[in-house]
Each structure stands twice: as C-alpha cells, then as structure tokens.
Specification:
420 residues; alpha/beta; Rossmann fold; 2 domains; 14 helices
Length: 420
C-alpha cells in the first residue's frame, strides 16, 4: 500500500522558482503518479503573500492538494518558528487532519526547525525524511558557506569562524544555534543529499554518516522541444539559466564575455533569469555589464519552468559559473539531458556532475579569464564539443527518483517498529 505523503518546502515554485522549490514540487507530483496520496505544503511570508486573518493557511492551485503556510514571524538565526500561538497549532491541526505516513521536508526556512519535532510529537509513527539542498543549518550566511568578506569559500563552520563573519552576533549564540538545530534534527529518520559533497559537509558538521543517503535529483519526463531558435548566424551560442545574483557568478560571466569581445571573438550569450530581491548595487553592476557587452550578450529575463527545456535546446553550451558550493544545480541536469556540454565551476556538487574534458569543462570559480578561455576553447574545437556532447550524463527521470525515495522510506519501517 502506497504511503500518504506530506511534502514540505520553504516556498512554492509558482511564487519563487528556485531549484529547491522546483525539485520538491516535481517530486510531489511523482509521488502522486506512484500511487501516493500527497499534499504539498509551501511556507511563505509577506514577500509573496499577505496574511489572511483567522488561519495560517492559504490555497494555491486548482486541485486542493497544495497549501501555503503563511509564516511572517520567523527567527532566521535560529531558523525557528516564533508564532507559537498561530502557526504551530495550525501545523498540528493539519497533521492530525491529513495524518501522513511520511513527512518529506525539503527546507526548514519559514516552516521552522521545530517542524520535525512537531511531526514526531503529533504523529509518533510517522516517518520523517529530509532532503538537504544547501548548508542553511551549518551556515548563517544564507546557507552559502562563503565568508561575508571577500567572498572566500568556507571549508568548515565553527562558532569562532561564524562569529568572525558576523561580529555583531556573540560567539556563544553560534554555539547555541548549532546545539539547537542538531537537537531538533534528531527527530528526522533519514536524510538525503543529492551530492556526495554536501553529504560530507553535513557529516563533518556532526550528522551521523549512516543517516545520510545520496539520491541524485531527477527531472520530469518531457517531450523533446519542438524546435530551437538560433541566431541566424554561424556563431556559438552560450546560455545561462537561473536567478541573477552575486553567488551564481553572473558578474564573472559578464566579465568573461567582455574579455571575449575585447579579443574580437564572435559569439552569442543568452542570459535567462530575473534578479528578484537583489541589492541596488548589484543590479546597477550587472546593468552596466549588460550594456557594455551588448549585442553579444542578450538579457532574456525570467522564464517559466515549462520553458527551460526549449531555452536549453536553443543554445550550444550551458554555463554554470557559481562561486559558492552549489549542491546539484537542476540546470546542469537539463543541459546534460539534451546533450549540451556544460562549463561549470570546479567546486561542490558541480564538480561531481561535470568532469573536466569528459562531459564538459570546469574552471576555477570567480575567474573570468579562465571562464573566457573555456568558452573560446569549447567554441573553437568542434571535435571536443562533439565528444563532450556524446558523453553527456542523462539524469534520472523524477519518477525513478521518487521510487528511490519510496524504497528508502520503506527501509525505515522495520527500524522504527523495533524501536517502539
């Protein structure tokens, strides 16, 4: 008998189309196709929705199987739910009404680190799985594991190092934060990481090695794009897909483009994505770089989830220039699924997905000269491009991923029965 599953994420892809929200929602639909009764719970706040008096919940979608939790009162430092008299009782009521056999958590932001404990207290026999998509429990700097000064990559978190990044926060509060989060995560039966790299980071932080499995992210099955839109010229076409922010390496990419233009190298770069909630200094910087690199670089703007396959099919090469430890970018899977070689930073989960000279090229993060050189090499060596394309690693489809999760969930049951 298929389990009843509650899927919880820190937003909804129709409100904030980030990789975590998209994957969580894709997996939710795959659970339903596998015969599970599933409910999607997305936590949000005033950035996307205003509160409605009388309840913490709001509807979204026409089918009644998706719900928003309005969580405007949230402690981002301790990742804790502040609204103990509104949100927490409403979550308990939802759990008692839906009575899931499994709660699959994809993030603790807005819903609160207490949520697994609330589930365990309310439904003692419920199995709790949590997918680790980033480093939020480890790192207060938006889960990036990048130092606040100089954008230096952080290799290991500690109260001393965290206090050095946030000098206005007392060192002992970082000690309390770590203990607080680890204590609440004890309620989780099983963790899943989409990459070996992220798994190792959480083991080093203190999670038990045998509690974290690796299941790569899958993609929804889809028909091949109907057609592609080329530039009408015999130029190499590069593509970037994702939100525009400093950590995604957009300024690095645009600086690389500017170097290629200075070298009189002809190409086209299509930058797909918006820049929501970014600082004025950042948006001013990329506006300047877009202006300086036009018409070689085209700012295509935000795109819908269902359009990404067509956009990827319309370019020759995909670039993922992130300067933080990306875990498992969905766009790499999208590109590889269509045989598109990828140029990616050689860190984090990106280095697991793209092997230099095999199915793409990798470069040091934050190095526009190295990125420009890789772009030129890729475009000027057709034999290399064909070889990298032939070696593209097609990701699992999301239905296979769902079956792997369900197998993992089934394996939890005997242990839990013995413990009872």
């Amino acid at each position: 008998m298929s389990p009843r599953v509650l899927v919880a994420a820190h937003n909804h892809p129709s409100l904030h189309p980030g990789g975590t929200e998209i994957f969580a929602h894709d997996l939710f639909r795959a659970y339903q196709r596998a015969g599970c009764e599933a409910l999607f719970l997305g936590a949000t706040n005033q950035i996307h929705r205003q509160a409605r008096p009388g309840t913490s919940f709001q509807g979204i979608g026409p089918a009644g199987d998706e719900v928003l939790l309005w969580s405007g009162h949230f402690d981002r430092f301790f990742m804790s739910q502040i609204d103990l008299y509104g949100v927490v009782p409403d979550l308990v009521e939802l759990l008692r009404d839906f009575r899931p056999d499994v709660v699959h958590v994809h993030h603790l932001l807005l819903i609160g680190a207490e949520f697994p404990h609330i589930v365990r207290r309310t439904l003692p026999d419920c199995r709790i799985v949590m997918t680790l998509h980033d480093y939020y429990p480890i790192c207060h700097h938006d889960g990036l594991m990048v130092r606040t000064s100089g954008k230096e990559l952080c290799y290991k978190a500690s109260p001393d190092r965290c206090h050095a990044c946030f000098k206005d926060i007392a060192l002992d509060r970082f000690v309390l934060r770590e203990r607080h989060l680890k204590s609440l995560l004890n309620s989780v039966d099983r963790f899943v990481s989409p990459s070996q790299f992220l798994r190792q980071r959480f083991i080093e932080w203190g999670l038990a090695e045998d509690s974290i499995s690796v299941i790569p992210n899958g993609l929804p099955p889809r028909d091949a794009p109907a057609g592609t839109t080329r530039n009408g010229k015999d130029l190499p076409v590069f593509g970037y897909f994702g939100n525009l922010n400093p950590w995604k390496g957009v300024p690095v990419l645009l600086e690389a483009a500017r170097q290629l233009i200075a070298e009189e190298f002809e190409f086209e770069l299509r930058v797909h994505g918006g820049a929501p909630f970014q600082s004025e200094s950042f948006t001013d910087e990329i506006a300047r770089l877009f202006k300086e690199t036009a018409p070689f670089v085209q700012q295509r703007g935000p795109y819908r989830r269902e359009d990404v396959a067509g956009h990827v099919a319309a370019v020759d090469f995909t670039i993922v220039p992130s300067i933080w430890w990306e875990n498992a970018p969905l766009v790499i899977g999208e590109a590889q699924a269509q045989g598109r070689p990828v140029i990616a930073s050689n860190i984090g989960g990106m280095a697991e997905m793209i092997e230099d000279g095999v199915n793409g090229l990798t470069v040091a993060p934050g190095d526009p000269r190295a990125l420009a050189s890789a772009m030129r090499r890729m475009a000027e060596d057709p034999m290399l491009a064909r070889q990298l394309s032939a070696n593209a690693r097609t990701p699992d489809d999301i239905n296979t991923t769902a079956r792997r999760y369900l197998d993992l969930i089934d394996a939890i049951e005997p242990t839990r029965i013995e413990a009872a």
